[in-house]
């Protein structure tokens, strides 16, 4: 049974501007996500990655009905499965199935999250 659906879209230009403050990425990304982020060579790819994670975490918070504030960006981690597809890991939601899709264009990143009970 679906418990929540969330969607978010962000302009890459906003993320690029925010990246001027190094603490922005530290605030949004978990330590494991930052390792991947720092491994990218180009600023464009870093912006796409960061924007996608930002959108996915916002979409998760909306689907959970809690919003960022009750949930921290650090509470939500997007990891890749064995095929490279994104998966969301949130300790408080370990008993639920969470689906995530992340996409981006030259100008935007977007994500959709569906949370469902495992029953």
Report on the structure:
Pfam families: ACPS (PF01648). It is an enzyme of class 2 (transferase). It comes from Virgibacillus kekensis. Its EC number is 2.7.8.7. With 119 residues, the protein is α+β, with helices and mostly antiparallel strands. The protein has helices at 12-18, 22-28, 31-39, 43-64, 67-70, and strands at residues 2-11, 77-80, 86-89, 96-104, 108-117. The strands form 2 sheets. A 3-stranded antiparallel β-sheet has the order 1-5-4. It has a two-stranded antiparallel sheet with strand order 2-3. A hairpin with a 5-residue loop joins β2 (77-80) and β3.
Query: In angstroms, what separates the terminal alpha carbons?
Result: 7 Å
Radius of gyration: 14 Å
Q: List the helices and strands in order.
A: EHHHHHEEEE
Low-pLDDT ranges? none
Arithmetic mean of pLDDT = 94
Oligomeric organization of the protein chains = single chain
Structural class: alpha+beta
* Fraction of residues in helix: 40-55%
Q: How much beta, percentage-wise? A: 25-35%
- Total helical segments: 5
Question: Could you write a compact summary of the structure shown?
Answer:
By secondary structure, this protein is α+β, with helices and mostly antiparallel strands.
Key attributes of the depicted protein:
alpha+beta, three-stranded antiparallel sheet, 5 helices, two-stranded antiparallel ribbon, 119 residues
């Amino acid at each position: 049974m679906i418990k929540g659906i969330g969607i978010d879209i962000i302009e890459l230009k906003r993320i690029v501007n925010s990246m001027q403050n190094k603490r922005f990425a530290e605030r949004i990304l978990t330590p494991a996500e930052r390792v991947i982020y720092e491994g990218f060579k180009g600023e464009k790819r870093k912006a796409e990655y960061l924007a996608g994670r930002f959108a996915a975490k916002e979409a998760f918070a909306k689907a959970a009905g809690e919003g960022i504030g009750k949930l921290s960006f650090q509470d939500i981690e997007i990891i890749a499965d064995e095929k490279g597809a994104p998966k969301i890991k949130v300790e408080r939601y370990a008993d639920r199935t969470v689906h995530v899709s992340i996409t981006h264009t030259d100008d935007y990143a977007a994500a959709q999250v569906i949370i469902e009970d495992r029953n």
